[in-house]
Amino acid sequence: MQQFWVFVRKEFYHIFRDKKSLLIIFALPIAQMLIFGFALTNEIKNTQIGILDNANDEASLNLIAQLDASKYFEISNTFTNPDEIDAAFKADKIKLAIVIPPNFKSELAHNNSARIQLLADATDPNTATTLEVYASAVIRDYQNTINNNFKLPYSISTEIRMLYNPQLKGAYLFVPGVMGMILLLISAMMTSISIVREKELNTMEIILASPLKPMILILSKAVPYMVISLINVSTILLISVTLLDLPINGSIWLVFGVCFLFITTALSLGLMISNITDSQQTAMFISLMGLMLPTLILSGFMFPIENMPVPMQVLSNIVPTKWFFIIIKDVMIKGLGFSSVWREILILAGMTAFFLIISWKKFKMRLA
Asked: Which residue in 80, 110, 165, 170 has its CB near the most CB atoms, within 10 A?
């Protein structure tokens, strides 16, 4: 056991002597959380819109004021004819145009109804649909205001309630996904070059001369990165709660336990890559390109897996980040307990065992 801790301490020395590695390990996760947390969001705010007010009466001006007061829109253009709307869309000055018909107030007073046209730039369908929903909601609120919330007989209304994320903040979706991506890339990438580095520095002969068994030697390489990754988890959770307003509704100990398991999975994956490659460059390339793209595409936090073709849905099951994303989202956001996520935890544990067995089998006790 004393020899084991000697190797662990040696690996710590390697890490702290390499300033570039320290920068990657500690600074990169913080930078990614801040960049992804604030930049990557499905919320749409302060969107540039244009207004063509053909009525210019009290009712239309009140509606425009209510649209402008919304945090979702910023009225940047007012038009006098429809041709200006088309030119504004082509110049990418607006994403949405609202056309108010003539005699808007009189139609509301006499016919109890009026038509408003919404024109959206559908080159980005998701954004266009979201803007249409936001604008319709503001118009509906204005209608309820002028009607004093009076409901006509036999009218059907819908009451919408957003569970777990009532303010529709993008951080609720992106933070768990980005957390998984950071832990996987950092843990797998740094451990993937650990054994390869010994080969390139010609120090593997000294290590192999030690009486430690292969599995113990492999674990001694992983322990320092486990400690550092747990520090990163604490930093990520602190940033999520304090800066990104992401609550932890479930057990904090379950969150740390799942993170510990996922870090173990990532470390074992990195060790497997380290044992099947012969150069740090190859190991780093496999860790970055071979893990980042599947994590972004097939984990479920960037693109819904349900919308993918069946072969890609099946392929996503071998991506560890998918299961981590499901667990963290259920525990942190929904506040669920172990009984609801034990299947996903079991899958991650099985992946960890598989990667460790492959690492052990591929570990070469002889260099020649």
From this structure: 170
C-alpha neighbours within 13 Å on the C-beta side of residue 68: 12
Predicted confidence band of residue 181 (pLDDT cuts 50, 70, 90): confident
Closest CA to 267 of 368, 192, 157: 192
Nearest-angstrom CA–CA distance, 328 and 332: 6
Q: List 257's β-bridge partners, or say none.
A: none
Q: Which domains does the chain have, with CATH numbers?
A: 2-40+169-362 (no CATH), 47-146 (3.40.1710.10)
Higher pLDDT, 259 or 157: 259
How does DSSP classify residue 101? P
Are the C-beta atoms of residues 11 and 220 closer than 8 Å to each other?
A: yes
Task: Please write the tens of the pLDDT for every residue from 126-162.
Answer: 778 888 888 888 888 887 777 665 555 544 444 556 6
Number of Cβ within a 10 Å radius of residue 46:
11
Q: How far apart are CA 4 and CA 9, in angstroms?
A: 9
Instruction: Tell me the per-residue pLDDT of 201-253, one tens digit each, with 9 for 90 and over.
Output: 666 555 656 666 666 766 777 788 888 888 888 888 888 888 878 888 889 99
Residue whose entry in the numeric block shows the structure tokens 């052990």: 360
Identify the H or E element spanning 252.
Answer: helix 252-276
